[in-house]
Amino acid sequence: MMVNAPAAPLTVAQAFVDSVKRFAANVAMVTASGESITYEELGHRVATAVSILRRLGCEPGDRIAIWMQNCPQWGILEYAAALLGLMVVPVNARYRASEAEHVLLLSNARIVFTQPAFMTNRYLDRLSEIAGGDLGSGDRAQIGRLPKLSSIVLIEGETVPGTVSYADLARSVEPAADLEALAASRRPEDRLWVFWTSGSTSAPKGAILTQAAITNVWNWTTLARYRADDRVLVARPLFYIAGNFWALLGPMLHGATSVIGQEFTPREIMELCTRERITILSGNPLLLKGVVNDPACDPRAFKHVRMGYFGGSSVSLQDLQQIKEKIGFEYLMQPYGMTELEGFAMSTHPDDPLEIVYATCGRPLPGFELKLIDPETGLAVPVGQVGELMTRGRGLVGYEGISEQDRGRLFDAEGWFRSGDLLKLREDGRYEFIGRAKDLIKVGGENVTAAEIETKLMEHPDVANVAVVAIADEKRGEVPLAFIELRSARPLESLAMREWCQTRMAPFKVPAGFKQVLQGDWPLTASGKIIKNQLPVL
């Protein structure tokens, strides 16, 4: 007898309420310190958060900012906001005062949920810098440069004037009893997030996503074969979509467990994999390479891992094979996406061979219309040729922090979104990621992408990591410059590297210069992407 598969959820709010009912006894979250929270207990904590948000005067459409490290409170506040029709503003845990002010001001955040500090970042000090002194009086925030901000809620630690304790608020309210009614009142088109993009090549901007994004989370995690007995390691920040959607929302949909990492170091990953019997392990390739190459790496730590996925930076087939073999993945997947596309817009399949997973990002997920165009003419390019990806059907509904002129450049009159990425459609229907359109280097009359050169350089047996940028050249307009990290600590021999490239690349693709970067010296975003505009080109 055939059993019908569950229908894809339409809102985060309804998905959460349904999972609490269906998986009440399952463990929903495990903290880095080992505390376990069942779905039933998570439901109670979210009900309390709903009452707290009401107590603070929140109305549908209001924005609440979350500025703290990974912790269960992240998910609790996110689900409560979804139920009440609020918008969540994730704030990078590493932001300093001016960066946080930019996000909080443009997002019109009414409440900031934070903690005293994360690592060396003391959040109350940062807020005081923005305020130019005191944060307010009593339990009310008053910061002139953030006129919409009315409350600063501390999830832990001692309060100061202008802040209020989450624990005190929790003791003063009764948990909301109407979660099902609230969930039923939410609509897919309700706006839920303002995700601020990582800004690896430009200033961050806020991508607005709706509750309907949960359908895309369901589509990919179902393709990836998430199960109720999975234990998914949160090895990325929750303020980015990569950690939030695939390691928090995704497990919730299937009744699985999110194990919440905080430091994202090889040691923490191995410890949590061992202690919590992790079954799904993902990460930026740089992170996974760091894990398997760590001197303390013990393959026994990963004996329960069955699947993983990766993306975000270049990796060689040799490195990918090493990662798969040393961790023991049954299968790996490579999706393609970005914040604006609800995370993933296409993906390889669990049954694809590793060579396909390495070379392609698979086929489109349901609901996405895709086309490739010539960036100069706007005309569609044929199969097998490189073009800029345009998408329609799913994704963001707008931006915060950009001008109307910029909006016009990102969306055409027919609603197609310009991704800024260069891809190629193969004869087998799979897509290959080529690089960023803004990483297109125009060498004389020839065009080459930084990613194309990076991919070739990653084939060099001594190269551990690479980033290529364009620099000005009097004769050719632009030329490529390669930043290289070697697998060993010996000095980079530029002449030998150039000679290696000359036998494998067209002359216009050969970098004009090579600069060595030592392990740990790359400027990285919190999601592990290399920040190219911070590389020292001079």
Keywords:
538 residues, alpha/beta, Rossmann fold, Luciferase, domain 3, GMP Synthetase, Chain A, domain 3, five-stranded parallel sheet, four-stranded mixed sheet, 16 helices, globular
Summarize the structure.
Helix content is 30%, strand content 24%. With 538 residues, the protein is α/β, with parallel strands linked by helices.
Model regions low in confidence, pLDDT < 50 over at least 5 residues: none
Q: Number of helical segments? A: 16
CATH A-level architecture of the domain at 39-196:
3-Layer(aba) Sandwich
Structural class: alpha/beta
Strand order of the largest sheet: 4-3-5-10-11
**Terminal residue distance:** 68 Å
Radius of gyration (Å)? 23 Å
CATH class of the domain at 39-196: Alpha Beta
Kindly state the number of beta strands: 30
Main sheet: strands, sense, barrel: 5 strands, parallel
Give the CA-based shape: globular
What would the CATH topology of the domain at 39-196 be?
Rossmann fold
- Tell me the fraction of residues in β-strands, as a range: 15-25%
